[in-house]
Amino acid sequence: MAQWWTLLTVVCLCSYCAASQHHRKALYPSAYRIKRGTYSLINPTFQHSVEDVKLLFEILLAGMQIQGDEHTLLIPDEELASLRSVEKLEVICEEVLPKRLSDIRRLMAELTQRHQPLSWQDFERTVLTLVYTTQTLARITNKHQKEMWTETLIQLFQALQKDLKPF
């Protein structure tokens, strides 16, 4: 009988460990591998205050474009683009956000398996990924590609909407 309880205890502990590791898995692993080599930019986030939220909204309204090539972030307003705080937004858009459809779909698979709210850093990155996906979808002409990106966009939106609902 003691062996039975020991076996059951080991199975329960293994299940608990596997579940806790799943929740600690980074949704945006590239946030911890910044190529620029600056320690202060490891796990970068843009929004730290209400003013940062307003600034991001202003940048988006100014027509910010996130593209998939080398210079990813384009802000048409030179004054906004020259702000020092925009550097972290550039790092996030250029080096952290997934740009390939397969990477965004991997993110979606991980988001749909989550049963807890996103951290504010992951929420910010997911919103920016939604912006990137929307802008990419607008440039695509191939019907099949457009359908796949549209499906991904809808799933991202639903994941964000689910995260905003109280548990």
Descriptive account of the structure:
- The protein has helices at residues 2-24, 50-61, 78-81, 86-96, 101-113, 120-139, 143-164, and strands at 65-66, 73-74.
- By secondary structure, it is an all-alpha fold.
- It has one domain.
- A two-stranded antiparallel sheet has the order 1-2.
- A hairpin with a 6-residue loop joins strand 1 and strand 2.
- Helix 6 (120-139) runs antiparallel to helix 7.
- The longest helix has 23 residues, at 2-24.
- It is globular.
Instruction: Look at the helices and sheets and give the structural class.
Output: mainly alpha
Q: Roughly how much helix do the residues carry, as a percent range?
A: 55-70%
Shape: globular
Total DSSP helices: 7
Enumerate the strands of the largest sheet in spatial order, edge to edge or round the barrel: 1-2
User: In percent terms, what proportion of residues is strand?
Assistant: under 5%
- The rounded Rg comes to 19 Å
Total domain count: 1
N- to C-terminal separation?
40 Å
SSE order, one letter for each helix or strand: HHEEHHHHH
Average pLDDT, all residues: 79
* Largest β sheet strand count, sense and barrel closure: 2 strands, antiparallel
DSSP strand count: 2
User: Can you tell me the residue ranges where pLDDT is under 50 for at least 5 consecutive residues?
Assistant: 1-24
InterPro entries: FAM180
Keywords: Signal
Organism: Oreochromis aureus
Signal peptide: 1-19
